Amino acid sequence: MFSQLKKLGPGLLFAGAAIGVSHLVQSTRAGADFGLGLLWALLLVNLFKYPFFQFGPRYASATGESLLEGYHKLGKGILIAYFILNLAVMFTIQTAVTIVTAGLANSLFGDISFLNFGIESISSIEIWTIVILCLCLFILFLGKYSTLDKLIKVIIVILTISTLVAVYFAFTEFDAPVTYTQIFPENKVETIFLIAFMGWMPAPLDISVWHSIWAVEKKKDEGKFSPKIALLDFNIGYIGAIILGIVFVCLGYFVMFNTGETFSDKAAIFSNQLIALYAKSLGNWAYVFIGIAAFTTMFSTTITTLDASPRAMSKTLELLVNKTHKNGYLFWILILVFGTILIFFAFASEMGLLVKIATILSFVTAPFYAIINYKLISSKHTPKAWRPSLFLHILSWAGILFLIGFSIWYLTIL
Length: 414
Prior knowledge:
With 414 residues, the protein is an all-alpha fold. The chain has a single domain, classed as Amino acid/polyamine transporter I, CATH 1.20.1740.10. The chain has 16 helices and no strands. The protein has helices spanning 2-7, 10-18, 21-34, 39-63, 67-74, 76-109, 124-173, 188-199, 207-222, 227-256, 267-282, 286-321, 328-347, 351-364, 366-377, 390-413. Helix 4 (39-63) crosses helix 9 (207-222).
């Protein structure tokens, strides 16, 4: 069992990156506002995004190179487009996930005050943001991929157990009939939420690039990471992300539906509201379980995102200029950290806005990643044995139409 678990890695990193804002914030709000009425959207978007996520580890394990090398083979223009898109969203995404993580840390571990040192202008949330980013940097610099690979397995186990315990007790305390009536948005506000909900469910499609990079790193680290193991690893992570997405919708439904509670866009207040509602409904004992579940959810997203974006940007730049940069990863991770801190200090009170911008940008750029991933995996650059089956071809075509259709629909209602 342990030897089999050791073979896993990139798929769990994918799950760690995916199970974050989409689950804790968006899925919880979906359950609080719509009950189980948006389960159709959760399942549908996971189905139609599936092949494009799967093509990342499929291509990487079959060829020994990431999707970025594949994009470069398809044409330099595609790689330039990726570089621009990633540069446009990486800071907003990192800031959004770090703000939520900092808010939860502040709620769980208390305020950090520098008043005694005469620094009164820095809030506790801002200090926690810097502490969390520094901690992530320390872990990534100290152990690189191998440490992240081991750490994420521990985090995923803690997250899964604590979340399942919380939802079980939430269900036992729920005294109303459970209704499964599905709901379709009736107005502009609900439609915008639906698009944001699906934008990061289970994750933005550009994570397929990250997954392919992690798969290449895993192959370097282990010496062997076959396509068969890579697909099993991916499916475990993907199915786990779907299940926990449903679980967080249920948590929002069982604990918050019809409470009349409105969530704040400020990170600290939102985190306190979230944990306090669970404690109020389930008892003070629930504070520990939901606190651990929430914090591990967001910390895993923060550290995997901080690792992946710099790897992707560094590799992209190397391919574009045809030159290897020894400290490329270091350069980009420091740029990302400082950019995140600057954006955070400017928009600390607008967590909801940052999350909405990040999720919507992810959704409207999804057709780009879907099309190029499908084109690459179906091309001569992928070994014939590992090109998609007829079923995956059909599902890919349907997924591309779905993503384009929803993006056009969203743009027409703005």
